[in-house]
C-alpha cells in the first residue's frame, strides 16, 4: 500500500511497552511482551516488505530482524533497513548476515572507509548531509518497490518518523508492568512537541487482549499525508 499523495511506503510503527510507556529499562533490557505477542510480531514481519530500525537498536540489541518465531522460509524475511547517519553499523552485526538483504541509510558526512566496508555486506544509500533525510529515504525505498515497512524503533527514530508525517499506523503491545526511570526509553523520545495541540493525533482502530498483554492499533490522523480513511 502506498500513499496516493506522496507514493511513499505505508509505515506501521510496531512496539511493545510497559504501562508507563517504557520500551526498555535504563540498562537497555527490553523483555516486555509475552510469547503470544512475539508470534504476532513475526507474523507482521512476514507480511511486510521491509523492517526498519535505527543504529542504536542495532548496537544495543544486535537483532537479526528476520522471521524466526513462526514457520517461514528465507524468502519470507523482509528487507532490513538501518538508519545509520555515521555508518556505525558493526560489520559483525547479525543484520549483515545472509538471511536477508539489508539497506543502510547514511549521510554525506559518514566516514568513507566505513561506508566502503559496509558496501561489502549491504546496499548503502546516502540520504542527507548530517542526519538521514527520512523523506528522501522513503522516496528511494518506494522506487525500489518497497510498499510496506514495519518500523521497530528505537525511540528516537520512532519520534522522527512520526513528526515527519511518515507513519501511517501505530500498533502497540502494552504489557502489565511498570518500569519507571527517567533515563528509560519511551515509545517516542526525540525533542518532543512544546504543546499538546501539536502532538501526533491517532484514531483507535482495534484493541484486544493477547495473553497477558493488550494490543492497541491506531491510524495516524489526517495531518499525516500517508493516512488512509
Q: Give the CATH topology.
A: Dihydrofolate Reductase, subunit A
The H-and-E topology, N to C, reads as: EHEHEEHEHEHEEE
- Give the helix proportion (percent range): 10-25%
N-C termini distance: 13 Å
Total number of domains: 1
- The shape is globular
User: Are there runs of 5+ residues with pLDDT below 50, and where?
Assistant: 1-5, 223-229
Oligomer: single chain
* CATH superfamily grouping: Dihydrofolate Reductase, subunit A
Count of individual beta strands: 9
CA-atom Rg in angstroms: 17 Å
The biggest sheet amounts to: 9 strands, mixed
CATH architecture: 3-Layer(aba) Sandwich
Secondary structure category: alpha/beta
**Average pLDDT, to the nearest integer?**
93
Strand content is 15-25%
Name the strands of the widest sheet in spatial order.
5-4-3-2-6-1-7-9-8
Please give a structural write-up.
By secondary structure, this protein is of the alpha/beta class. It has a single domain (10-220), classed as Dihydrofolate Reductase, subunit A, CATH 3.40.430.10. Helices cover 20% and strands 24% of the residues. It has helices spanning 35-47, 55-61, 112-118, 134-143, 155-163, and strands spanning 10-18, 50-54, 79-83, 102-106, 123-126, 148-151, 169-175, 202-210, 213-220. The protein has a 9-stranded mixed sheet. Strand 8 and strand 9 form a beta hairpin. The chain is globular, with a radius of gyration of 17 Å. 40% of the residues are buried.
Amino acid at each position: 500500500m502506498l500513499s496516493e499523495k506522496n507514493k511513499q511506503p505505508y509505515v506501521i510503527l510496531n512496539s511493545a511497552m510497559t504501562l508507563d510507556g517504557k520500551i526498555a529499562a535504563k540498562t537497555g533490557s527490553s523483555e516486555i511482551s509475552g510469547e503470544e505477542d512475539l508470534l504476532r510480531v513475526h507474523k507482521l514481519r512476514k507480511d511486510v516488505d521491509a523492517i526498519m530500525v535505527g543504529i542504536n537498536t542495532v548496537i544495543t540489541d544486535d537483532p537479526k530482524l528476520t522471521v524466526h518465531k513462526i514457520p517461514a522460509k528465507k524468502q519470507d524475511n523482509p528487507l532490513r533497513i538501518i538508519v545509520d547517519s555515521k555508518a556505525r553499523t558493526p560489520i559483525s552485526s547479525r543484520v549483515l548476515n545472509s538471511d536477508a538483504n539489508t539497506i543502510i541509510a547514511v549521510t554525506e558526512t559518514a566516514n568513507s572507509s566505513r561506508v566502503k566496508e559496509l558496501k561489502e555486506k549491504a546496499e548503502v544509500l546516502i540520504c542527507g548531509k548530517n542526519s538521514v533525510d527520512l523523506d528522501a529515504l522513503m522516496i528511494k525505498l518506494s522506487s525500489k518497490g518497497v510498499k510496506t515497512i514495519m518500523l521497530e524503533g528505537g525511540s528516537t527514530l520512532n519520534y522522527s518518523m512520526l513528526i515527519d508525517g511518515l507513519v501511517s499506523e501505530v500498533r502497540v503491545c502494552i504489557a502489565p508492568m511498570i518500569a519507571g526511570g527517567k533515563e528509560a526509553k519511551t515509545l517516542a523520545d526525540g525533542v518532543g512537541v512544546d504543546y499538546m495541540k501539536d502532538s501526533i493525533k491517532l484514531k483507535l482502530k482495534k484493541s484486544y487482549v493477547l495473553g497477558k498483554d493488550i494490543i492497541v492499533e491506531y491510524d495516524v490522523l489526517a495531518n499525516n499525508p500517508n493516512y488512509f480513511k
